[in-house]
TrEMBL record, chains A, B:
Name of the featured protein: Carnitine dehydratase
A single GO molecular function term of this UniProt record: CoA-transferase activity
Keyword Transferase: yes
PANTHER family recorded: SUCCINATE--HYDROXYMETHYLGLUTARATE COA-TRANSFERASE
Keywords: Transferase
Family matches, as SUPFAM superfamilies: CoA-transferase family III (CaiB/BaiF)
Gene3D superfamilies linked: Crotonobetainyl-coa:carnitine coa-transferase, domain 1, formyl-coa transferase, domain 3
InterPro entries listed in its UniProt record: CoA-transferase_III_domain, CoA-Trfase_fam_III, CoA-Trfase_III_dom3_sf, CoA-Trfase_III_dom_1_sf
Length: 406, 406
């Protein structure tokens, strides 16, 4: 399936960056996974019972399959952060790290006497990324939150539905943990910006980064806020269609959905030829996007009539052959079967000691081969798998270098 | 509305990082906006007629309102990259830059004799981030693409719908340019990882980063790929509900949608008390998530019956008062009116010379005040606004430092 099987050494542009994760569930672990994939040395701290995410999703041999990918390339240790007797280990880890990433409720680290001042007393160079639902201050900082709530409070969930009157169904999830994932990406970017300031500009100081789930998704709303402020327009749900461009929508083929993005004048004219409607290519009313917006129903009906006559894969092939952007809505099975995924190394065979042979998504983004590139060195470890290796070294003041996956 | 009005100096942890954008539409411009927000000095190159995105969305005084936010904190110059006579300007900009971010179709830079080898001959330290629909290689690299196609090919669009049989409506857009935005975040992270390698590890070499829209969204699919590989399970659309947790869904109040994430045993029991169903809190069948998954319809019906009796804001208040994560699905108008957004500086007054007073989303993520923080220094510039300032300085071999917004 792939020419990139599991390797025995972590490498990549972030080799040498030391990251400590005090995280659970999705956001902080995904942030550190992104850094680990690019070569950072990540130590993940779990309570003795393990991160609750070890129970998520399907299992094989009693182990979560998602875990294999979600926590790959990390080393896992267990530690009871409430237990004062464990403090020497905590201190050693904090002194070891360049970066700490955490996603407890605001105030939780402080209740364990691990607030930013305490951390910086041990290690003033420590960069601290704090991910939470509502952020570290503001009136709602103490509110419980989850990704779904962050997405809805941040303004995205309102938009994942149909215009009023089309259906009584609620707006949908995006099918992924969008709020957590976007926060994780922002945290990874913020961490590396702070590394730049500390090590390239040479301030030597560890900054604190405050990532709120809702603010990540809110920042993706593009023109919605300035258009509300300047034009008094509230962005409304638009279903499957692009509200500002025609044609760009999802159409029903005989066996599934086809997405067509025909949103330029030239693409539109090619599309009209393909669907046997040269009259629409010549129609002056429809020559520009503004005209097509005014006649959306007419344009979409003509496209829908053509798509409805054939399987989605056939329409996809015909359209792409004439440079009209189009694709089936891929299932994960379609992704695995697709030659482009295979050629790009996006589906990687992994032999996981906990669950056996499985597959992971490749490392994103891809770096060129002029230097070390990130890779899948090992899958998500067992609970406490690296306790001996790490605590022995770190408590002795040694750097605890990574070995091949034990 | 905010205590963070427009400032007259760009600052932040990335001050001193020089970024050249050869971009258009969403992905590359959003990537460089993220870097500019954190203090990077971004020069955006447009063709003489301007980036086509200047025509997107609502306008005031003939200027796009979205542009104000989408290209803030940058300096804008015009340059015809096809024109050999302009080559000295191009070369001066490449020599000036630390980083280049581009999102042309693969092969386009090469057709202009601006392939990576040519760029590195001028500036071997240049980091090059290339964003495209399908990536720089593989069988589909030459296919036309747009965000909607990347999202569908990457496996997310299939999931933004309802299970088969619930509705004939197609899966929805997420309401934002998800594929472009996620690619932009990955590119920003990749750029800063390459800066780390070049300047902290000291390789001195500019790496090339290949970001494909579809790979960004594919990487968010969590357990979907390993679960397909290990358990032969294809992830299917699940509508508004979290497929692995009960209760976590969207419910209809008298005036709009309410999202409740009651997905822990303790939260579930508190929720049962609030909705007047202590019997459900005591029901052994429903004590664990596994049990609630098996009786999802029963649990959801009881919650829905309670939510249906009152306005969403009232249910939101009652639930949050008892630490049950819940929120209305916020419109952008709700965001602007909310005290938490105001306290966090997420809605910022901006006086834009092109469109007048407007508002922008704040800088994400937030840095602490122990050093310079990113801010909104000026809104998206006019076409060619900084031509004289930049070309005069750069062609003379001077660094063209940023001034206050002219």
């Amino acid at each position: 399936m792939s020419n990139s099987p599991v390797q025995t050494a972590v490498d990549g542009p972030l080799r040498s960056l030391r990251v400590l994760e005090l995280g659970h569930f999705i956001a902080a672990p995904f942030c550190t996974r992104l850094l680990a994939d690019q070569g950072a040395d990540v130590i993940k701290v779990e309570p003795p019972g393990g991160d609750p995410a070890r129970d998520w999703g399907r299992k094989v041999n009693g182990h979560s399959v998602m875990w294999s990918m979600h926590n790959r390339n990390k080393r896992c240790v267990t530690l009871d952060l409430k237990d004062e007797a464990e403090r020497p280990k905590v201190e050693a880890l904090i002194r070891w790290a360049d970066v700490l990433v955490e996603n407890f409720r605001p105030g939780q680290l402080e209740r364990w006497n691990l607030g930013v001042d305490a951390l910086h007393a041990w290690n003033p160079r420590l960069i601290v990324a704090r991910i939470s639902g509502y952020g570290q201050d503001g009136p709602y900082r103490d509110r419980a939150s989850f990704g779904a709530v962050g997405e809805a409070f941040g303004g995205v969930r309102y938009l994942t539905g149909y215009p009023q009157g089309v259906t009584d169904l609620p707006p949908v999830r995006t099918g992924v943990s969008l709020g957590d994932d976007v926060a994780a990406l922002y945290a990874a970017m913020g961490v590396l910006a702070a590394v730049h300031e500390r090590d390239v500009l040479g301030t030597g100081k560890g900054r604190v980064i405050d990532v709120a789930l809702y603010e990540g998704v809110f920042s993706l709303l593009e023109g919605a806020l300035p258009e509300y402020a300047s034009c008094d327009v509230v962005r409304r749900p638009a279903g499957s269609a692009m509200p500002t461009s025609v044609p760009s929508d999802t159409y029903k083929a005989t066996d599934g959905w086809l997405v067509i993005a025909g949103n330029s004048d030239a693409i539109y004219r090619r599309l009209c030829g393909i669907i046997g409607r040269p009259d629409m290519a010549a129609d002056a009313r429809l020559a520009t996007n503004a005209g097509r917006l005014a006649h959306r129903a007419e344009v979409d009906a003509a496209i829908a009539a053509w798509v409805a006559t054939m399987p989605a894969a056939e329409a996809e092939r015909i359209l792409n052959d004439q440079a009209v952007p189009a694709t089936r809505a891929f299932t994960v099975a379609d992704c695995v079967a697709d030659p482009h995924y295979q050629a790009r190394g996006m589906v990687v065979d992994v032999d996981d000691p906990l669950i056996g042979p499985t597959r992971h998504a490749g490392v994103v983004p891809r770096f060129d081969e002029s230097g070390p590139t990130g890779r899948i060195a090992w899958p998500g470890p067992a609970v406490g798998q690296h306790n001996d290796e790490i605590f022995t070294e770190i408590l002795a003041g040694r750097p605890a270098p990574r070995k091949a996956n034990p």
